[in-house]
Amino acid sequence: MIRHATAAALLVAALAAAPLGAGAKAEDIRIAHVYGKTGALEAYAKQSHIGFMMGLEYATEGTMEIDGRKIVVIEKDTQLKPDIGRAALAEAYGDDDVHLAVGPVSSGVALAMLPVAEEYGKLLLVEPAVADSITGENWNRYVFRTGRNSSQDAIANAVALGKDGVTIATLAQDYAFGRDGVAAFREALADTGAKLAFEEYAPTDTQDFTASAQRIFDAMKDIEGRKFLFVIWAGANNPISKIKAMEPERFGIEIATGGNILAAMKAYKALPGMEGATYYYHDIPKNPANDWLVSEHEKRHGSPPDFFTAGGMSAAIAVVEGIRKAGSTDTEDLIAAMEGMSFETPKGTMTFRAEDHQALQSMYHFKIRVDPEVEWGIPELVRELKIEDMNIPVRNTR
């Protein structure tokens, strides 16, 4: 009796030392979604979470179970602050004892979270933070990413804009997302014949872009040939409409940018014929996962799925397929199963590259068409840039 009582006491003590998320059981699959529910990228976060939950539903055929184990999703709000994101992830791994985590929205927050995954030896599936350094110089083996990286954005947009005789200036946010994006774009342009003549960076909370625009205009106005201002911007205060109001065409400068969420693409209606490249637009991919996402999102939310909804769904599918393939939630089993793994998403096939766990995926060269009945500029497909069409550099040093 004493031995049994002692064993029971030890079991209680062990469970107390490793508390689970509310309502979770030991056999449940516990996933933390650590993302910026509040702050400037709140719209992105909402889309990402809706997509993630819909993706779990789709991948499990509505059961929300994998191999008979219930999926429990625990949400954490980073508030877009690196220190809070780092603490939230540590809490998820430590106190909630999650098997893996997904997120965040901001590249700056993601970079703060990467060492936590390594410290705890648990997976962090990055979605949708973009900076190259996440799967580059700051990467570790516990990090996977379904979101596209800056190089994928840059190479796709370089294909769309880069030609002999073209000169480009950039305007980007002054943090990891913007600076990594410009660095990758500069590198990608090198093989196109185009020239990157000027780089302008602005704080993420900038409201007045007059000074930035004037510096760009001064640098570009006397250059001959076709000229673009390529904007790399995420979240609130998107400068496109404000700069368009300053009439850059006076200097022969055309505005160009990549894809964005539907609300931001309302500004694209003033830019018919503008070309760029995008990660996702609901009308472009043709596959069963996207058909389901578009149909179900319309039914449930009265609107098409957006940029980051597709990303959230892709992350969820990757999680489900990885656990199924591993037959386990053990971290080492998951890493072995997911390295090189291909899986079907709303964008078609993605493949986790073994060297850096970056998901290789299609991008879409578009041209804006304006329809008076549609609130935003419509990115019509010019060309799908498939995995084999883009040479995405491996940038990690480990």
Automatic annotation (TrEMBL):
Gene3D superfamilies: 3.40.50.2300. Pfam families: Peripla_BP_6 (PF13458). The keyword Glycoprotein does not apply. It comes from the Bacteria. Keywords: Amino-acid transport, Signal, Transport. Residues 1-24 form the signal peptide. InterPro entries: BCAA_transport, Leu-bd, Peripla_BP_I. Residues 29-369 form the Leucine-binding protein domain. One of its GO terms (biological process) is amino acid transport. Belongs to the leucine-binding protein family. This is Amino acid/amide ABC transporter substrate-binding protein, HAAT family.
